[in-house]
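#lab-general

N.A. 3:47 PM
ok so I finally got the sequence cleaned up, no stray characters, all 133 residues accounted for. can someone with queue access submit it? mine expired

B.Y. 3:52 PM
send it over

N.A. 3:53 PM
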Amino acid sequence: MDNYSNLPAPQEPNTEQVGLTDEQIIQQINEIGNKIVYVANNIATIHKEIHQMDLQFEAYIASLNNDIEKRKLNIPVVSKQLDSLNSMMSRILDKVLDMDVTTPMEMEHKMRMMEIIDKYLNQISNLTMRLLL
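B.Y. 4:20 PM
back already:
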């Protein structure tokens, strides 16, 4: 005995109940298909652009790493120059401190020179510290 004999017979869908003709249904299916294709193309474009951005970012990082390596090679040269400049400024400061002052104008001149030298020594120290960090 067949267990499926109690099932109702399949019926054709009644498009009149829904209110759409076969042409309208086909048109809507085509529109949905076109939208799916459009979305799929956009997703593929986005993936391609993300990949391109990843490659550009990796190239930028490689460029920065190369620049860092070049600058690391310059650190000893710059450090020696800053040390040399610092010792020259210290000698100048010693000479200014040894100057004999007899008039207020000479005293003002000496103080001004000491301020300028101190300013430059501070700048050299700051540059040296930044170079070491």
